[in-house]
């Protein structure tokens, strides 16, 4: 697993210092001689750095394999693409699973982190790689929050920004959903106050339930209906095929239940409960306007970054209204901003799925920005 | 590009900051960027057109003249363009005010309801006129505030706007020869084009 150990470490917003700091990352494509073609792709809550290659744990293709690669909308023949595991994650970057100086894992003692801390950790990695300026920062959901924070913190280091299916602050509804997830984890008998490793346990049921609940918010009613409807499957573990056995309340399972259980259990294999708590909390804290009296445009005043804000029509977790609020705030700041709502019935997760209009938007925005940046035409 | 768009482009100085309201497929902003080196952006209400424009690398916002202009800062642009849309907005007077708040110049084009053929149609048939420009029946037309060239000039006077340039054109693409007479332009011009600024 490739990662950078940054000895100087990072002082977090809460005042704690993480030193040394590990940032796990993957890169695709070649950095140009002028070092002007780097694109940082930021992952969502449960994503990781395995953007466009087989995932080492699940064996599945990278989470944006359809978007990033040679000739794809984020074209690795032209651009040098970097994806990091976020600070607080569990795929190699410093997080609750990392060991402290005393050799113990951090667990729930891991300090609270913010989206800005994640971005500053990424900036340290870019310094380490010798990349002063990003051609673009792109990301969906929590990745979009990082993109916004990147421009707010380092406006001169980002030429183009694409925040997708995201918001300039985490809404009360979003915080509420996250709290239900966290409560599910801490209610698990295997939780052991977050020191589950001491007992050779993982709070698998709680983490699974958290994932199931969150997964519902990533979809839409139409998507669930189309995919599963009210179809029922007999659970072979509970019942045989003989009609002689008595029926029970849970003798059969709706397809949608089975799907959610699968989502929950496969998630537990690749994610750490304490990371989930740390990262959801970082999202909850996110509010770009917090230091500016509620003015979302303030962090972007005088900013030269070209923006493309994208939302999806059926996303009820990060609805279009929040993207419009962001786009208008950017207008107030005088920023060059495009704003597109992609028509899709697949909910928040649409940004990870095959949506041709979205692909065209991505390709067009990147090519247009590259032309303005003087990077030349698409090959 | 349509004729009125070419005429609009002629009014715009190189390297200007331009906001094109109702940018459609983005033809004007693309032209301004490529031939005049302008920082040109668009606002468009039709999402298909927005997606198409952004997919061509053009900076376009989904939005409309009535609700989105208020979110731009004073003097953000040199020119704010409203092509063939004034008659379709909810509050034309407010839209013009916003245009001249956020831009130094406003360029407005609209189809002239005072054209002689429309007058004749209404006079002889007693029904709402229909032709190549006004081509939707009254019950589904997006044009809720049709006006004539003289109406528009009156509004500009009331609001204290300076008419820096104006011209009337016909639909076939010819610049109309009655440039000095507003009365004749109002009778024979199918499209009107105004360059306005504030005192």
TrEMBL record, chain A:
The lineage of its organism: Bacteria, Pseudomonadati, Pseudomonadota, Alphaproteobacteria, Acetobacterales. This is Homoserine O-acetyltransferase. The active site is at residues 141, 315, 348. Gene3D superfamilies: 1.10.1740.110, alpha/beta hydrolase. The keyword Transit peptide does not apply. It catalyses: L-homoserine + acetyl-CoA = O-acetyl-L-homoserine + CoA. Transfers an acetyl group from acetyl-CoA to L-homoserine, forming acetyl-L-homoserine. Homodimer. Its EC number is 2.3.1.31. GO terms for biological process: homoserine metabolic process; methionine biosynthetic process. It comes from the Bacteria. Residues 37-353 form the AB hydrolase-1 domain. Substrate binds at residues 211, 349. Belongs to the AB hydrolase superfamily. MetX family.
From TrEMBL, chain B:
Gene3D superfamilies: Vaccinia Virus protein VP39. It holds the Pfam family MetW. Transmembrane segments: none annotated. InterPro entries: Methionine_synth_MetW, SAM-dependent_MTases_sf. SUPFAM superfamilies: S-adenosyl-L-methionine-dependent methyltransferases. This is Methionine biosynthesis protein MetW. It comes from Kozakia baliensis. The lineage of its organism: Bacteria, Pseudomonadati, Pseudomonadota, Alphaproteobacteria, Acetobacterales.
């Amino acid at each position: 697993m490739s990662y950078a150990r940054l000895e100087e470490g990072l002082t977090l917003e809460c005042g704690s210092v993480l030193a040394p700091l590990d940032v796990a990352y993957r890169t695709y494509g070649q950095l140009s001689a002028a070092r002007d073609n780097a694109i940082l792709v930021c992952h969502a809550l449960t994503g990781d750095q395995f953007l466009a290659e087989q995932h080492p744990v699940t064996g599945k293709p990278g989470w944006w394999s359809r978007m990033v690669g040679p000739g794809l909308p984020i074209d690795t023949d032209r651009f040098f693409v970097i994806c990091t595991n976020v600070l607080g994650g569990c795929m190699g970057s410093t997080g609750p699973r990392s060991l402290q100086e005393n050799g113990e894992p951090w667990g729930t003692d891991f300090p609270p982190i913010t989206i800005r801390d994640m971005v500053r950790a990424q900036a340290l990695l870019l310094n380490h790689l010798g990349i002063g300026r990003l051609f673009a920062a792109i990301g969906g959901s929590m990745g979009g929050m990082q993109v916004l924070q990147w421009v707010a913190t380092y406006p001169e280091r980002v030429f183009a920004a694409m925040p997708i299916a995201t918001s300039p602050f985490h809404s009360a509804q979003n915080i509420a959903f996250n709290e239900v997830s966290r409560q599910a984890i801490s209610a698990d008998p295997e939780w052991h106050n977050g020191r589950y490793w001491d007992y050779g346990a993982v709070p698998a049921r709680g983490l699974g339930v958290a994932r199931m609940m969150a997964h519902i918010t990533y979809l839409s009613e139409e998507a669930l209906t189309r995919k599963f409807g009210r179809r029922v499957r007999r659970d072979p573990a509970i019942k045989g095929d003989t009609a002689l056995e008595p029926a029970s309340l849970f003798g059969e399972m709706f397809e949608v239940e089975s799907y959610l259980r699968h989502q929950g259990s496969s998630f537990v294999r690749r994610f750490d409960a304490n990371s989930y708590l740390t990262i959801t909390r970082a999202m909850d804290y996110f509010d770009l306007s917090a230091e500016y009296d509620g003015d979302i445009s303030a962090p972007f005043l005088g900013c030269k970054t070209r923006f493309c804000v994208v939302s999806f029509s059926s996303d009820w977790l990060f609805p279009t209204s929040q993207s419009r609020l962001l786009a208008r705030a950017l207008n107030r700041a005088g920023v060059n901003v495009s704003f597109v709502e992609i028509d899709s019935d697949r909910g928040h997760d649409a940004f990870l799925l095959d949506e041709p209009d979205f692909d065209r938007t991505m390709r067009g925005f990147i090519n247009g920005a590259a032309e303005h940046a003087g990077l030349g035409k698409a090959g | 590009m349509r004729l009125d768009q070419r005429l609009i482009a002629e009014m715009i100085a190189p390297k200007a900051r331009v906001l094109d309201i109702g940018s459609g497929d983005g033809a004007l902003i693309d032209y301004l960027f490529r031939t005049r080196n302008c920082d040109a952006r668009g606002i468009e209400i039709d999402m298909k057109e927005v997606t198409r424009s952004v997919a061509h690398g053009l900076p376009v916002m989904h939005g409309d003249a009535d609700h989105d202009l208020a979110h731009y800062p004073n003097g953000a642009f040199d020119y704010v363009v409203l092509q063939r849309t004034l008659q379709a907005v909810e509050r034309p007077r407010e839209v013009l005010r916003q245009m001249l708040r956020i831009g130094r110049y406003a360029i407005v084009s609209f189809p002239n309801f005072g054209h002689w053929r429309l007058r004749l149609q209404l006079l002889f048939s007693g029904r709402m006129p229909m032709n190549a420009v006004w081509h939707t029946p009254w019950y589904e037309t997006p044009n809720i505030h049709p006006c004539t060239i003289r109406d528009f000039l009156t509004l500009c006077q009331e609001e204290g706007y300076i008419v820096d340039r104006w011209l009337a054109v016909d639909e076939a693409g010819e610049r109309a020869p009655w440039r000095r007479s507003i009365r004749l332009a109002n009778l024979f011009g199918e499209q009107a084009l105004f360059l306005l600024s504030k005192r």
